[in-house]
Design brief:
Alpha-Beta Plaits, four-stranded antiparallel beta sheet, two-stranded antiparallel ribbon, 7 helices
């Protein structure tokens, strides 16, 4: 019986964006980990020269301050449990719709773009397109705004495909 539950939960896990208070970043990630929720806080590593020194230092920069990406199954961990965590404002959704599912392909593309950026292999042409542009943007507000627009596009695309399926099946 438990094997069936494990298979079911692995299939129904989806990625969601959660808005949160940035000052509580570490605490929120620890609490989500305790709930067995996969957390992906997208960040890039910035290397900078230390003042009055010959050494370099690194600093992790959140790509989308105020947003965490979480992979979870609402049948296992309900949204209300996540919402009770101090500092979480809510799941990203549009209109009266339930929390927006972020396709695995978007997460994979984001991970790939971060990796390419870290290797400095993102060409100027690639930077002007999609996720690589978002990752390479210097302004955190611009990155968050571009990510929000990307989520809106994904949401609109999914709604159009659902409406077309309903029309075809009618």
């Amino acid at each position: 019986m438990s094997a069936q539950l494990e298979v079911r939960s692995a299939v129904s896990e989806s990625w969601y964006a959660v808005r949160y208070e940035v000052n509580r970043h570490k605490s929120i990630i620890q609490q989500l980990d305790a709930l067995n929720v996969d957390v992906f806080p997208p960040y890039r590593t910035k290397v900078y020269h230390q003042k009055n020194s010959r050494t370099f230092a690194t600093h992790n920069v959140l790509l989308f301050p105020g947003y965490l990406l979480v992979k979870m199954d609402f049948d296992v961990v309900h949204t209300s449990v996540v919402m009770r965590i101090m500092g979480i404002y809510g799941f990203v959704h549009f209109g009266g719709h339930p929390p927006m599912v972020i396709p695995d392909s978007v997460i994979a593309n984001l991970r790939k773009s971060i990796e390419q950026f870290q290797k400095n292999s993102v060409t100027p042409v690639a930077r002007s397109n999609g996720m690589a542009f978002i990752v390479s943007e210097n302004s955190s507000m611009a990155r968050a705004a571009a990510f929000g627009e990307l989520l809106k596009q994904v949401h609109a695309t999914r709604n159009c495909s659902r409406q077309n399926k309903m029309i075809i099946s009618s």
